[in-house]
Amino acid sequence: MKLQRLLFILMLGFIFSCSNDDDTGEPLELRDPEEVRDENMLQIEGFLETHFYRFEDNPQNSNFQNIIFDTIAGDNANEEPVINSEFLKSKLVFQQDVEFKLYYLKFREGAESVRTPTFADSVLVTYRGFSLFNNQTFDGSPNPLWFDLTNNIRGFYEVMDEFKGSTSFQENPDGTISFDDNFGIGTVFIPSGIAYYSAPPSGSGIAAYEPIVFNIQLYRSIEADHDQDGVPSWMEDINEDRRLTNDDTDGDNIPDFADVNDDGDGTLTEDEIEIDAEGNLILPDSNGNDTPDYLDPTFPEDA
Questions:
Q1: Per the record, which residues fall in region Disordered (predicted)?
Q2: Residue ranges of domains in the chain, CATH in brackets
Q3: What is the pLDDT of residue 65?
């Protein structure tokens, strides 16, 4: 199952359900996002306080060790809770004016010499997604897959820039790939408000408003330029909210990261930027109005 981006839109506090329990067609009222956020935080922190982790070999992929979480009880009563781990970190994420605390385990950052992906890039990962409540897997791959982060849920892509890939890889005689043992390894605990909220994927087994968990190993990343206009996609986040779908400079209903003419002036973006001899991107401002040419509908007409 491919990770899906949650379109977290509140429309007068209601959405319509195609399959209401009473089959009356009545609108389904969304819960208050801050209330859900607070509830999810209690659930996640409760999990971190009552569970520990261990690594197990993965017979499907020697690169991808299984990270197992288990309850601190019985024979495991003396295990250290995740909440006390030296690898546990957190960051703040803002979605629709709601502040979320995103917990993640950073077991290994990755190779120091390798680039850090942005929130808009493509990444090569192995992963497992599972329910916080019952450890039930709803998505995953023990073999490396490329993900376009712009198509992933917020909580997944917001943690990727905390990791790096490996330095190199080798192709094995059987056609499989082995990566140097210095790739990024981590786990992220995602509140529903930056996951699937009230609309989890059909058949996933995830309940509405349920927090989820991903184990992730990052092998490689590539800077994305979705519209091939010469401006990396992460730079087309004009309002700097780390979302690309709401940046539309010319108002043509095509987000800038997918628009080959960002300012709608009739001149392609690729013709309003420059690349120097070292491959660096230069954004000219020919008329000196503090707006780069590629975002300025008054240039070249008024230059």
A1: 243-303
A2: 14-222 (3.10.50.40)
A3: 79
